[in-house]
Specification:
Layout lengths: L11 H4 L3 E4 L1 H5 L5 H6 L4 H6 L9 H12 L12 H11 L5 E2 H13 L9 H9 L6 E3 L1
Antiparallel strand pairs: 1-2, 1-3
Length: 141
């Protein structure tokens, strides 16, 4: 079985340092609740600000909680999280809707500096991983 990135995602102009974003439609298209999926990732500060259940909030409301409360919270990004989980959290908490590969790679690499183990992953491998991470809601911007 071969998996290929979308044809428009690999054009020469955006392949060197593409930007990635979180697309809630990719989660919804799998029959999963965006509110449930994102609610499980909320940091404690965002949970404290919730009025009601996360399943009842729109993606925009949840995204605002991530950006305003989770971005700087200690422990929200952790070297113990799997790579794709870390990237989803980076994208959700980023001040911009799209984050360049170079910035994602730098943030993940910096987290690994504090880890007892450090996976071997270069930026090209990270790009290939993210280009096939639609199941986690990650897509090129």
């Amino acid at each position: 079985m071969t998996t290929n990135a979308p044809a428009d995602a690999v054009s020469p102009k955006n392949d060197e340092n593409p930007s990635y974003t979180f697309d809630p439609a990719l989660i919804a298209n799998q029959g999963r609740s965006v509110g449930v999926v994102l609610g499980a990732r909320l940091c404690e500060a965002a949970k404290a600000k919730l009025k009601g259940a996360p399943e009842e909030l729109t993606y925009e409301e949840l995204h605002k909680l991530f950006k305003t409360h989770c971005a700087g919270q200690e422990g929200y990004l952790s070297p113990q999280h799997p790579v794709l989980e870390t990237v989803v959290r980076i994208l959700l908490a980023a001040p911009e809707d799209a984050v360049p590969l170079s910035e994602i790679f730098e943030q993940v690499s910096n987290l690994w500096l504090t880890s007892a183990w450090s996976p071997s992953l270069n930026s090209s491998a990270m790009r290939r991983l993210l280009d096939h991470a639609g199941a986690q809601g990650i897509t090129r911007a």
